[in-house]
Amino acid sequence: MTEEFKFQLTQNLPQEFSIKASAPSNIALVKYWGKEDIQIPKNTSLSFTLSNCKTTTLLKLELKNKASDETQIQVFLDEEKTPSFIPKIQKFFHLIDPYCPYLKHYHASIHTSNTFPHSSGIASSASGMGALALCLVQIEKQLQPNLSLDDLRKKASFLARLGSGSAARSIDGGLVLWGKHQKIKESSDLFAIPFNDGVHPVFTDFQDTVLLIDRGQKQVSSSLGHSLMNGHPFAEARFAQAQDNITELQTYLASGNVKEFMRLVESEALTLHAMMMCSRPYFILMASQTLEVIHKIWNFRDETKIPVCFTLDAGANVHLLYPRKYKAEVQNWIDKNLKQHCQDKAYIHDEVGKGGEFLEIS
Ligand code: PMV
């Protein structure tokens, strides 16, 4: 139990709440792969918060007649009842009970929608849990108005993490760091922190085009993937490498060294997939089109000297990263040369964004 985020319920609760918030997806540059306990990461990770790929959630709470009544939870995705989401939310509410004790006094209905298609292969868990956590901390602000914005964002990241690890990084904007790092004093395993101080301007508006290579469900869930790092023959070396990569990346971020940034980011993506390929059981999440695209990126970069690189999350989709300055040329090249490798020729242009937002409360 983490004392810092416990909430003392002393006041009478309002009859109802209606809160709306949104949170974006994020893409890790240094990857989180391997955890213990409840989303305690085995290494520090660092991500870009995105802007266009986001979830907006309206949380409606209605006071129960008796606290002992079973909490009714309803979930609507794009205004359609989606009972399949209920068990995950129920589990999440149960887990966060010590930190959000007011919740058990309410029935909840959650109306959520994503800007990206459900079947895009883009995980909605980071943005979804981020948006829900931001709704919850808004309730706390109502109950305890003296809580600072900083406290609220920290708690939102803490709660989002309990829902889905990488969701901790979907609250703040720009570059976000999660997981204790020996050289970064404020870093924590419990919540993510913004990591924008001293970052060169080239990285503040970086572009990310998500090439949707495979729009299906992941064949291997990230929970299973993380668990396969337990007893993995290369686990300890990988966790140590990630810590070093954070330190190294920090120097490139400060100096604006795009070339070395790209080398490190691509190496992180391939290392993540290499870990998957040599876990027991082993598995491959890249598709043949993922490799085709990677080779095209390398050729384009060699021929044009335009700095573009790729990263991957736990799936076949490719995130193409490039400085804003090259947006027109790169997007034109994607349309002519990469689109055909995407399922239904689909891709999403995104960029570094500002993080989650409180939208309204009544
Ligand atoms: O948050 P989870 O449990 O879905 O894990 C995310 C893992 C990666 O996307 C592969 C890496 C990361 O740091 O986001």
Summarize this, please?
This protein is of the alpha+beta class. Helices cover 33% and strands 23% of the residues. It binds (3R)-3-hydroxy-3-methyl-5-(phosphonooxy)pentanoic acid.
The amount of helix comes to 25-40%
Low-pLDDT regions:
none
- The number of distinct helices, counting runs of at least 4 residues, comes to 8
Number of structural units classed as domains: 2
Return Rg in Å.
20 Å
Describe the structure.
The chain is α+β, with helices and mostly antiparallel strands and 362 residues long. The chain folds into two domains: 3-197 and 354-361, Ribosomal Protein S5, domain 2; 201-351, 2-Layer Sandwich (Alpha-Beta Plaits), CATH 3.30.70.890. The chain has eight helices and 14 strands. The protein has helices at 86-95, 125-143, 149-163, 222-227, 235-255, 258-277, 288-304, 327-338; strands at 16-30, 35-36, 40-41, 45-63, 73-77, 80-81, 106-114, 175-178, 192-194, 207-211, 309-311, 318-322, 347-351, 357-361. Strands 1, 4, 5, 6, 7, 8, 9 and 14 form an eight-stranded mixed beta sheet that branches. Helix 2 (125-143) packs across helix 3 (149-163) and helix 5 (235-255) runs antiparallel to helix 6 (258-277). The longest helix is centred in the last third of the chain and has 21 residues, at 235-255. The protein starts with 15 loop residues before the first strand and ends with a strand. The structure holds (3R)-3-hydroxy-3-methyl-5-(phosphonooxy)pentanoic acid (PMV). (3R)-3-hydroxy-3-methyl-5-(phosphonooxy)pentanoic acid binds next to helix 4.
